[in-house]
Design brief:
Radius of gyration: 27 Å
Number of strands: 7
Shape: globular
Number of helices: 26
Structural class: mainly alpha
Length: about 600
């Protein structure tokens, strides 16, 4: 080869390197731009409010922040990990609510720079970032479906209608951990298949640690992950003809060491979760079946329920709200109980059509673009659709009744419709698996049409309804205005924590939430326990609703006598001197 040839070769190589560098830069800019758009859309209300509005409301958000403050106290060595500052003097009180473990670690970092309410919003930002990045890596690297598809999945998942609307319950944003779990599971299986046993076992242990920590953070999303994984394994065994006990046992034997590593690690790491939640499950018995019936998925309606304030599809639901109200005008809240709130977990109609057609191609036709579908993809699609169908309600009957009765932990779920939030990412993966080749052809032949379709997929998730309802300045001022208890107070209870506060939702909820929720937060901030508190489940002799009732102090005094409490103080912000001691004789001192 002469010098001219060498020069030509070097020139071609340099041109390829420059082209490759430009491609990487362009793809990086695309992903970064999509991330910025996703965060601006999801956080648009907090941003437009000057970061005054945070996620949640006067009740649930204050309760959540109090538990996050508990973990901050744990990290400071000021509290036992399993016992919160509320429901004093009971132990293991973390088990009455979601544990928020991973949230607490993130929140405690942000508390180094921010007050409780802004730190809570920054915690949501942390998990939305984890979710976006992990979803992108899952599609682009683990599944190898391309950067454009990965960017679109990450964007759509971040701004998904149901996940966004239900951010009023911040713990549900822990669904961001799902792509992390999926990447670990896929990597572990591939390493096992390739004979890299050490890597497979390490990944299995990492997955076990993630699920155990997730259970101690947000029960619903972690349980849905375990349940869906079991569904996938069952479907895969059926499709691969390994459902018979002998065949299943032979398969397990071949991978026994890795399975034992993963299962053994999970059995150990899940012990803290079991230690605090099993006693509470035995104490409360879980949620009654009749109560759960109100939170199942109405066929078709709830499957696409994006709420009456959705910018593109709200017109579908506003007449339904009006019809229900016309039928029962005496109950103005009925339309929201039937169609709103926890029922607004559906996927938008365009995505719904894409999901159904993708599932049909994968499960029934078993071919995509003329090519056969892999057994793994068919099992994944089948498990996803079966899981979705199980949530449907037909009057007072639902196949979820079998899950409730037979699957461990099923009685701990009340709002089954939240499963649709978990299913959003699997839905998007099915759509990409079935439609990405045709979408790429469309993008090459008619890029303007592909761009319009992508914009519609994003836009149909947006709504005027917002989960950001907690005013930072108002909450911070209200909490700061309450003086800490005197040094002689060993514990306290709240009567009124804020003067002239507007009604919280209804008279019934006003009697339950404001004083109890504030007492929870104050107890964690002051590190002084309170007998107050409010949760899905409460201690057996909890009786601290209706603080303005004439017998409220008597109920507190009876509780203090039963538990032999000394130094119990009373907080009433209506008084010039808010703090007083419970009368010793009444307290049994």
């Amino acid at each position: 080869m002469d010098r001219a040839d060498v020069a030509d070769t070097n020139a071609v190589t340099d041109a390829r390197d420059r082209s490759s560098g430009r491609d990487r830069l362009a793809h990086g800019a695309m992903v970064a731009g999509a991330f910025v758009v996703a965060m601006l859309l999801f956080f648009r209300v907090p941003i437009l409010s000057g970061f005054d509005l945070g996620f949640g409301d006067r009740g649930d958000a204050v309760i959540e922040i109090s538990i996050l403050e508990h973990w901050r106290n744990v990290l400071d060595g000021a509290a036992a990990w399993d016992t919160t500052g509320y429901f004093h003097p009971y132990r293991g009180t973390l088990g009455y609510n979601d544990g928020y473990l991973l949230y607490g670690l993130s929140y405690s970092f942000w508390r180094l720079f921010a007050d409780p309410f802004h730190a809570d919003t920054l915690n949501v930002l942390t998990f939305k970032t984890i979710g976006f990045v992990a979803a992108y890596l899952l599609v682009a690297r683990t599944l190898g479906w391309g950067r454009v598809a990965a960017t679109l999945v990450a964007l759509l998942w971040t701004v998904a209608s149901g996940i966004s609307l239900q951010a009023v319950h911040v713990q549900l944003q822990s669904v961001a951990l799902l792509p992390v779990a999926m990447m670990l599971a896929i990597a572990a299986v591939r390493a096992e298949q390739d004979g890299r046993r050490g890597r497979a076992r390490t990944l299995a242990v990492a997955l076990a640690a993630l699920i155990a920590a997730w259970l101690l953070t947000a029960y619903y999303m972690a349980w849905f992950t375990i349940f869906s994984a079991a569904l996938f394994v069952a479907c895969w065994c059926v499709l691969s003809d390994r459902w018979r006990p002998a065949a299943a046992l032979a398969l397990a034997r071949r991978h026994a060491a890795t399975l034992l590593c993963g299962v053994g690690a999970f059995a150990i790491l899940v012990l803290p979760f079991l230690a605090i939640y099993l006693p509470k499950a035995g104490e409360t018995g879980g949620h009654p079946y009749e109560e759960m019936l109100g939170y199942l998925v109405t066929p078709l309606i709830d499957m696409i329920n994006v709420g009456p304030d959705n910018y593109l599809w709200g017109w579908l639901f506003r007449p339904l709200f009006a019809l229900i109200h016309a039928e029962m005008p005496a109950d103005p809240m009925l339309p929201r109980r039937v169609l709103g709130g926890e029922h607004e977990t559906g996927i938008p109609p365009i995505l719904f059509v894409l999901v159904v057609t993708a599932a049909w191609q994968i499960i029934v036709r078993r071919r995509i673009d003329g090519l056969p579908v892999s057994r793994d993809l068919r099992a994944f699609a089948l498990a996803t659709i079966i899981g979705w169908l199980l949530t449907l309600q037909f009057w007072s009957v639902s196949p979820w009744g079998l899950v409730y009765a037979l699957v461990p932990g099923g009685k701990g779920l009340r709002v089954v419709s939240r499963y649709q939030l978990w299913l959003v990412l699997p839905f998007l993966l099915l759509v990409v698996a079935a439609w990405r080749q045709r979408a790429m052809r469309l993008a090459r032949s008619r890029p303007w049409l592909a761009a319009i379709f992508a914009v519609l997929l994003v836009a149909e998730n947006l709504s005027a309804e917002t989960p950001a309802q907690l005013h930072h300045d108002e909450q911070q001022a209200a909490v700061s205005a309450i003086p800490p208890p005197p040094n002689a107070c060993a514990s306290f209870y709240a009567v009124v924590t804020r003067r002239d506060e507007p009604l919280y939702l209804s008279a019934f909820k006003q009697g339950l939430y404001p004083h109890n929720a504030d007492a929870m937060l104050l107890a964690e901030l002051w590190r002084v326990p309170t007998i107050n508190g409010i949760s899905t489940f409460n201690p057996p002799d909890w009786d601290f609703a209706s603080p303005l009732a004439a017998d409220y102090d008597a109920r507190v005094a009876a509780y203090a006598r039963r538990h032999r409490l000394h130094g119990l103080c009373r907080l009433d912000m209506r008084r010039a001197r808010p703090w007083s001691r419970l009368v010793p004789a009444a307290a049994g001192s």
